[in-house]
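Why does residue order matter? Because the sequence determines the fold. Keep that principle in mind as you read this record.
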Amino acid sequence: MSLLEILGIDLPIIQAPMAGVSSPAMAAAVSNAGALGSIGLGASNAEDARRMIAAVRERSVRPFNVNLFCHQPAIADDSRETAWLEYLRPYFERFGAKPPLRIREIYRSFLEDDAMLAILLEEKPHVVSFHFGLPNADRVRALRQAGIVLLASVTNADEARASVKAGVHAVIAQGYEAGGHRGVFDPDAQDDCLGTIALTRMLVRQLDVPVIAAGGIMDGAGIAAVLRLGACAAQLGTAFILCNESDADAGYRQTLTSEAASHTVMTRAISGRPARCLQNWFTVLGASVSPRQIPSYPTAYDAGKALNAAAKGSHEAGYGAQWAGQGAPLVRELSAAALVASLAEEFGRASRASAKDSR
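Structure:
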């Protein structure tokens, strides 16, 4: 059975599950257009997850993907957290605000969220994907026994082999070009920063499961290119940020259409984990600090969100988590359905041209 048959889709296109950006309306529109829509539940509790799943199903009967964060729970470090808040104090004061007295672990990892597992087993979304790592064998077994297709983001061959051994149906090869959080299992380990092309080709040759390419893919020509490398589908995130159904705020949208789109930066300062962001005031701040200064993910994100709220209160959008990949200058402002249609047409044209050239 092909990956498209396993996923229940017509097109080799997956809309990335961008927490805070990919709304249920977006996921439904993408799925209705024949691709795989996705919602990010990593920042949600179990009841919010139930509501989001229901909101997609109100708009679509097609398969969709729900994404979960499998990070190691944060390690509390009062001295580091206090020092980080003091470091950020002058930035808060620019906007007439004070940093919070304490910061906390604002997102619960799926590794220990029994309530989220119960919701998934009850709701049975067609596809569940993992980011930052893998759940334990019992959780994987339970999801598979419920008939759920499992995907895992990986950034190197070791993570990919671990994912296959754990029992996922396909891996998402996340290249260093990709926007948002790196899917590295261990954010403190060496990152070889493999690009999408190299990683995809390596995994296609080494694995017996389908490979989905992700990172820097913005149009149908990019989709055709990674499929020629052996990928079975392409995952696109940044390409969907300006869609009508996106939850990206006005400041995010404005920055994405500015010169900043040509200067994305990998930073830990916003959330505590490496993530590719549009160049903004927060990435400038992050360039001058050591990773050892930054609290664990997602505790650091609590401070980052507070600083962004203070800045937005003074009409400054430059401290947001404005995630975007290196293909950001190619972004288009369309409805999600129109974008999928354009991607499909471009992909078909590029595939036909490639077939003609090979004759």
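The chain has two domains: 1-73+108-247+331-359, 75-106+258-328.
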